[in-house]
Amino acid sequence: MATALPTAGPLVERTFTPEVEAELEALCARYPERRAALLPALRLCEREFGSVDLGGMKLVARLLGLAPAYVLGVVSFYTHFRRPTDGTYVIEVCRTLPCALRGADDFMQHVERKLGIKAGETTKDGMFTLKDAECMAACDKAPLIQLNGHNQELLDPKTFDALVDQLKAEPEAFELRKGCRDPFPWTKPADPAAQRTRPEGERDYEHEALTHEPTLLRRCYKGRATTLAEYQADGGYAGLKKALALPPQQVTDMVKDSGLRGRGGAGFPTGVKWTFIPGEDKVPGPRYLVINCDESEPGTFKDRRLIEEDPHLLLEGIAISCHAIKSQHCYIYIRGEMVLGAERLEAAVQEAYAAGVFGPDALGKGRRLDCTVHRGAGAYICGEETALLSSLEGGRGYPRLKPPFPAIKGAWGQPTIVNNVETICNVALILGRGLDWYKSLGTPPSPPDLYPKLPRGGAGSRGPKIWCVSGHVQRPGLYDVPFGVSLKQLIFDERFCGGMRPGRKLKGVIPGGSSFQILKADEVDVPLCFDAVANAGSSCGSAGVIVLDDSTNIVMALVNVLRFYHHESCGQCTPCREGSGWMLKIVERIAAGAGTLEDLDTIDAIANQACGKTICVLAEAFSWPAQSYIAKFRDEFVEHIKQGRNLTGGRLCAPGGSGK
Amino acid sequence: MTADAAAGPGGEPGFTPDFTFSIDGVTVPAKKGDTILKAGLRAGKFIPHYCWHPGLSIAGNCRICLVHATKTMPPGKPVIACATEVVEGMEVESDGPRTKELREGVMEFLLINHPLDCPVCDQAGECDLQQYSFDHGRETSRFEEEKTQRPRKDLGPLIRFVGNRCIVCTRCVRFCEEVAGTGELSVVNRGDASWIDTFPGVELDNPMSGCVADICPVGALLDKDSMHSTRVWLLRGTKSVCAGCATGCNVNVETFDEKVKRITPRENQAVNRWWMCDAGRLTWREATAPARVGAARIAGQEVPFARALERALELVRDASGGVVGLTTGFASNEELFTFQGLVGRGAIAAAFAPDGATFTSRDGFAIAADKNPNREGARRILGEGALGAAGQDAAIAALEEGKVGLAIVHDAAPGGAPWSPRLLAALGKAKARIVLALHETPANADALRGAAVVLPAAHATEKDGTFVNAMGRVQRVRPAVPPPAGARSDLDVLEELARAAALQPRVLSAAGVFRRLAQALPAQFGGLDYNALGELGRPAPGAGEALLGRGRPLPIVDGVRSGYEAGPVSRAPGRADDEQVRPSVHHESLVGYGTRRGDL
């Protein structure tokens, strides 16, 4: 499999108009190094020339002072740039696990039939190009496509055909289809009658979770972004005022005291991370806050909703956090695929500049605060914080060696804090609603011996939380429920997901996004909090709860997951670059009925040979699912091998029946 | 930083350990900031590595140097020796069973998509993948799937890429970015579909491009000049010095069956670090160029060498009147010294090849504009008077006076020495003329025409002696192959002539001549012992900084930024004017020696 280079077509010399060059210069001015403007500059090429072609790469190389090969290396790393060979409409179909569980494979077959092309091809009339895409962070809206960067969600063959026919008939129809069309909150309001009295001396986290009013998502589901005025009317930016009145150290202490743990996957205590920034006497120069909005773990789609519909919550959190860590520039690194999110975020940032949240006097006493929205270009690995920094600096998204950690040497070699969107939104809530309120939500630090796998105890899980539920439940979606709710409750309670689709039983749940271990049906009675789920042998990760019913072929599920991580391995470290592909090939062989029992040992060996031996944890991301699926559903693997065939005829799961 | 020869190739003069740690129970001294790998190498404790190279930033991607060590975070997790700083008292396990398992794992991964084509691979025999596979690999592979395919293509005039063999260690990419500063290479695509490539139309054509083949740990980047020529285990290496310019890069001249097959750089931190330029790499072709004077001649007729030498000796014995000598910046110190004695009080003119392409790498490696390997030696031995126009004018004056009985021309310059037409015309006025010539070209045709005796001169790969580079460093040039059929080396010939002229009782070897020379010219060569020059040479009196202004600067910049700060692929080349720093004339310089770019 030799992937083609994006070098098709003749080299046509390109130039920008003076206006566009000025635009590029303005972009460059937002970064300490010109190179950092590489991805934005390539977006300008897309806009001006219709695609990123050789001429565009050469032009950008010259304007930014880079070698052309360097630019080619960067362009070929990312998948989301328009290629010169692309048609008028690029249709990208997501087939990663959560989408596939909801029929994306069947849907893709239909799309191929309708358009008469396979993935990677363009129709003869040059109108449509079909591409496979990786997780779009809209797993509850599957099957979905991206049409020239804009989501078209909850499609079925009929609606897809109508869409294609409409595009053929009236080209301007595309404009009408931009935007998030069908917001629907599934969480039903709390029933006051259901309120129970709290047992004396004991807290019922389950009950608290069930009766909790949405906090993070309270302004979402309007189908548009909350404006600054609306946000302020709802009490927004009050927390920032409070924060600016306090010395930075005190804000950091509050965040530390709140027990807030990072929502991006690792669950590291946020306030503690902030304290790793060295003093200005030790490391002078700027500090950066970088927001990780590269939400691309299959099954995770919370940050997307927050930035699309309540961006000011994030911006308030940013301003507070910058004050705390004495940063004067925040970069929001947002996935390239989130076109709408980037537009809305950019608009909100402009609003915030106009209102003085950012700008020359934002931090008071003439201290400046800037905020820059930086778009990625299609690479899962850029969600890893150091890969994100490499990408932000205008490079291939290669994770970096640690130590030093970003807090010591991050963006452009300066102390940098990288935090997830939801984490920083929590910071706004801590300041806005107060420490007492915040600490009343979630679970406290777990004492030693509570969980056998955490002999020294755990740091607890405080605060509100958004759970992203996808897969075979009645109502996939976002659930704004504090830590402590049980996984079982989340899946089966009528107020939340409403149970499995009709006639099906639960097979397993991946609680933290597709890179984590699966829990079997009898393991789901576990409180959703970092410590308890870790004890159960998995992780809350980025809260991507993927639910599999009993029709699911676990071998096919593993093929799907491995395809994703193989495709997204950056290729730097030997074990991950080679191991991800090797493991995938073996599992594909087993799925095709040509596996042997030794293969299962080999998979385990590959996993052990890769885990902990690489720069970042992508090796773990493909090893953990493989090891846990085989450990927990070994019979199914063995049955494929013994029978020498695919037990479900190559299907991942039973079709249809999302249950809405 | 100028490393002293005594400190060895990777020498660190004045190394004083700050503390000690241990590798496999052996105490190893270390400096603060050392990595495990570096401190280990210094102490002779080798830890396998692919992506790490002492002259490049740390990439940490190949993972073969994974070791277990104490005092790391988190405890128990293996660390890469190339990027992990040692701390006092750290205990590293590099040879234990746990580390063996790590290496077996990495080796297995590296080999699953690597072709089993060692029998036809040029790297076989000097391949780290082969070596470590033997040392650390498993006997069998569990891989039964289809291998990935990556392209095979020419990346530039000198370099071929065989994608399937590439282990994406990025040494070559980092070299082009951090050393050459030209950035022609990049990793393209990602995952196991990634390979090394250039931008279409901007080929790998920097003046040091051949180095990427040297540093490629596997057979993915090949030097087309020596590709498919000889199995490397048959090659015999001779530690010598490149005669391509005044830098004097330390090289291995590698031969088989008395023919040079390739020239590769040899580490010398005081001169060329680990590098050499492409032009120098190809200088061996000068020895086999069609212009080579292959046979001796008397009055234009080819004769056996011995007869021609006999005739030359007669001419010297019978010479009456003055003597005039013409030499070049390609003659060794020993040749120059004997030549000077031979010419005696007659005029000596030295001609020098004109300045050519120059280039300074980002780490301070410099290609000298001065294309004469021993101009500095000529200056020290012959004095300023013989150099340049003054020398030629003196020779012309002497010749035109008509009293010159014998002119001796020693022209070891590839392409012929550029004497002035006036001097060449005046040469005819000498009663007899002996010419030692490497090449016969339009430049020196007039000198050869009408010569009583023409003797083939030796190429630098055939010489024994010393050169002084632009920084005043005296370095040994050693004969890797014999001179053309029947010929004796230039020094031998000159020594014989000197004996015939009754200047000395016997013929001396290069060592003997050097001893005399060092005694005769204490200000220039005092304190130097031929046998103590070693493999890396020694600075002559007055060497170094003082020469910077006049010669070619060879500042060795200390240290490429290391590690995370200069990650190859994560840091920018940051060079806008890449067109300007790429004088691609270097390949053209060989045109005329039977080499065209297309040949390579």
Quick synopsis:
With 660 residues, chain A is of the alpha/beta class.
What descriptive keywords fit this protein?
heterodimer; A: 660 residues; alpha/beta; Arc Repressor Mutant, subunit A; Glutaredoxin; Rossmann fold; 5 domains; five-stranded mixed β-sheet; four-stranded mixed β-sheet; 15 strands; 40% helix; 10% strand; globular; B: 600 residues; alpha+beta; Ubiquitin-like (UB roll); 3 domains; seven-stranded mixed β-sheet; 16 helices; 25 strands; elongated; disordered N terminus
Structure description:
Chain A is of the alpha/beta class and 660 residues long. Chain A has 5 domains: 18-77, NADH-quinone oxidoreductase subunit E (Arc Repressor Mutant, subunit A); 89-176, Glutaredoxin; 228-439, Rossmann fold; 461-549, Ubiquitin-like (UB roll) (Roll); 554-643, de novo design (two linked rop proteins) (Up-down Bundle). In chain A, the strands form 4 sheets. A 5-stranded mixed beta sheet of chain A has the order 12-11-15-13-14. A 4-stranded mixed beta sheet of chain A has the order 2-1-3-4, covered by helices on one side. In chain A, α14 crosses α16. In chain A, 57% of the residues are buried. Residues 179-190 and 192-199 of chain A have low confidence and may be disordered. Chain B has 600 residues and is of the alpha+beta class. Chain B has 3 domains: 5-111, Ubiquitin-like (UB roll); 113-286 and 572-599, no CATH class; 290-547, Rossmann fold (3-Layer(aba) Sandwich). Helix content of chain B is 23%, strand content 18%. Chain B has 16 helices and 25 strands. Chain B has a 7-stranded mixed beta sheet with strand order 15-14-22-21-20-16-17, with helices on both faces. Chain B has a 5-stranded mixed beta sheet with strand order 2-1-5-3-4. In chain B, strands 6-7-10 form a 3-stranded antiparallel beta sheet. In chain B, a hairpin with a 4-residue loop joins β23 (465-468) and β24. In chain B, α2 (97-112) crosses α3 (128-136), α8 (333-343) packs parallel to α13 (490-500) and α10 (388-400) packs parallel to α11. Chain B is elongated and about 85 Å long. The interface between A and B is large, with 67 and 65 residues.
